């Protein structure tokens, strides 16, 4: 009987340790602010008006692209007669919101792939950035096309 209590105690201690050490995914896609930003992005067509990658101005590489953030987290980038499909989401982790972008092609758009920290936003402008520590910061600004 004493051996059973000892084994039960060990099992209980291990279960507690495993439960405490497991880290749940902190990304929250139901945060009220993420919903606001997601809804803003879904409205209209957006252009990149500023793009600095590792401190270098790459805005010209994005000229002519029109971005549409659609339902189901589908992101379309159109230039001329070509349309490229990627994915997007807005998540929150602690007090920070992130705009997550992913394109598999073309190479020109793959440079946008990142979990960008949302710096500020308004109805017609969203600015995001990524700080890589020892490298220069990257900045991306989307502005809504206005008629």
Topology:
Elements: H1 2-21, H2 32-42, E1 46-53, E2 56-57, E3 66-69, E4 74-79, E5 82-93, E6 96-103, H3 107-110, E7 114-121, E8 125-130, E9 138-144
Antiparallel strand pairs: 1-2, 1-9, 3-4, 4-5, 5-6, 6-7, 7-8, 8-9
Signal peptide: 1-21
Keywords: Signal
Protein name: Lipocalin-like domain-containing protein
Terminal Cα span: 80 Å
Average pLDDT across residues?
84
| Total count of helical runs of at least 4 residues | 3
Radius of gyration: 21 Å
- Work out the number of β strands: 9
CATH topology group: Lipocalin
**H/E element order:** HHEEEEEEHEEE
Task: Name the beta content range.
Answer: 35-45%
Main pleated-sheet profile: 9 strands, antiparallel
Low-confidence stretches: 8-26
> What structural class results from the helix and strand content?
alpha+beta
* Total number of domains: 1
Question: What sort of overall outline do the alpha carbons produce when their principal axes are compared?
Answer: globular
Organism: Parapedobacter composti
Keywords: Signal
Signal peptide: 1-21
Protein name: Lipocalin-like domain-containing protein
């Amino acid at each position: 009987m004493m051996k059973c209590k000892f084994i039960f105690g060990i099992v209980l201690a291990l279960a507690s340790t495993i439960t405490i050490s497991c880290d749940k995914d902190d990304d929250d896609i139901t945060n009220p602010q993420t919903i606001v930003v997601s809804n803003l992005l879904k409205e209209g067509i957006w252009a990149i008006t500023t793009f600095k990658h590792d401190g270098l101005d790459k805005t010209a590489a994005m000229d002519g692209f029109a971005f549409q953030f659609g339902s189901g987290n589908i992101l379309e980038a159109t230039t001329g007669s070509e349309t490229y499909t990627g994915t997007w989401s807005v998540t929150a982790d602690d007090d920070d919101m992130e705009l997550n972008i992913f394109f598999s092609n073309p190479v020109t758009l793959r440079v946008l792939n990142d979990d960008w920290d949302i710096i500020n936003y308004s109805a017609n402008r969203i600015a995001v950035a990524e700080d890589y520590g020892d490298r220069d910061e990257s900045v991306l600004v989307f502005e809504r096309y206005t008629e």
